[in-house]
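Reading a protein record of the kind used here takes only a little practice. An example makes this concrete, so a full record is given next.
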Amino acid sequence: MEAERQALALSQRLGLPDAVARVLAARGVDTDQAPGFLAPTLREHLPDPAHLLGMAAAVERLVRAVQKDELVAIFGDYDVDGATSSALLQRFLTALGARVRVYIPDRMVEGYGPNLPALSRLKDEGASLVITVDCGITAHEPLAGAATIGLDVIVVDHHVAEPALPTAVAIINPNRLDETSPHRQLAAVGVAFLLAVAVNRRMRELKWFDGTDRTPPDLLRWLDLVALGTVCDVVPLIGVNRALVAQGIKVLAQRGNPGLVALADAAGLDSTPGAYHLGFILGPRVNAGGRVGRAEYGARLLASEDPDEAKRLAGELNRFNEERRAIEAAVLDQAIAVVEAEDRRDTSLVFVAGEGWHPGVIGIVASRLRERYNRPACVVALDRGIGKGSGRSVSGVALGPAVIAARQAGLLVNGGGHAMAAGFTVEAGQIRPLRQFLSARIADQLAGAPLVPMLGLDGVVEPRAATADLVAALAKIGPFGPGNAEPRFALPAVRVMKADVVGTDHVRCFIAGGDGARLKAIAFRALDGPLGRALLQSGGLAMHIAGHLRADDWQGRAGVQLLIDDAAHAQ
């Protein structure tokens, strides 16, 4: 009843549609919080960068590098968070007049994070300062080596840290164990943005732009990069992250970044962009280069000001994405076969390894296995006795700390991560002990409680009420992601009037309510699972179906479709 009263208050005082008011009330948003929630601003949410440990030292060193015309190298990770962080800092430092060099390691050859050979090459090229972005927090040996050869390093990261920090001029990471910042949910690109804000402020104080043809950079115009990296790293969209993404989506719609424009065009994106398009259309294409051996393409595309270069790179990344899909499908089929053939008494973890699996797709395959089995999943690609591993977790199980503990126990060559994702390198002979170690750690976190799939619902809706107006109203609650899930509704006792297979494994159908009103629906990647079989073989029996309502604007339509998450017979 309290939620009902709160929903009524939200609707009456703020003039919100009833559906929006009910969802907000159910999520604990009251009338005082609702305006800021529905229209998050950086003025309200962006923290003072100076509150982060290491920020002052990083600003001082970076300002000196700009003033003395030093070559600054940016050492980025090969995923979207790393690519956007690298492109953001490259654009910013270039605008200050600095000389900048971006280096993205080859994931197949060099692995994750800084390595001393690469750092030494950067030093030989003339770099005196390296900024690591989305990596570096556990790179103890490489960064110690960098210090030995006289190379200064600033670490900009967000992954879980250990008690001992690596050697560096400055380490900015909201997940340092000695950090008191409340903004631990920031992606690396968010941390990089705060660094840019702090440096920009200091350069203004020093009157760096006075009497020159340099214009103080407008950092807000690069929020599209911040939004892309934040969404794709699957960090909670709450607080400052929510504001960064909400404002970044507005910047993205202005089509000011030639790389993002070219990528959207290559992907055939012709609708108003949102968090979904960042995470599932643009992000995978930025990632694709790193997955097939062209790790630097994503950062180059996002930093490019040349429309012709951007078009060429976007076309290549689009093609790489198609290659990645084919490789991913083959590895996934093999991984599922391994899991299905195992004794699955270990209910805490899915762990599979395969010789010759492409290391560029193991993260995606781990995500698919996590979805399929509702357990944390680790996938290892073996090559000549060394395994490159990637893991994805479920809510309530922190995988990154477990991987760090395994490294500290001597089971890994290297490894790290955060709660929901981790990466590691392991010798083939240590795979069995590693699996046992991670299983035990995860079992300890679960404390004997089984991993039970949960499907949260925000309400009940009939097919006739699933209108474009409702979808537009619900969009006001976005951007959606972890910490602010897209509203999910149950459609009770509906009937599947028609169902068929589209693509390779998607099930499309039309569902009807008791009054005969119909709604288009689709269940992605459901063909081989119980959901797909239930929809295809419903026999006209009444079913309860749950999913998300989305605008259906394919080929200029102005309709609505349901993205089906689950279904059950109504009897």
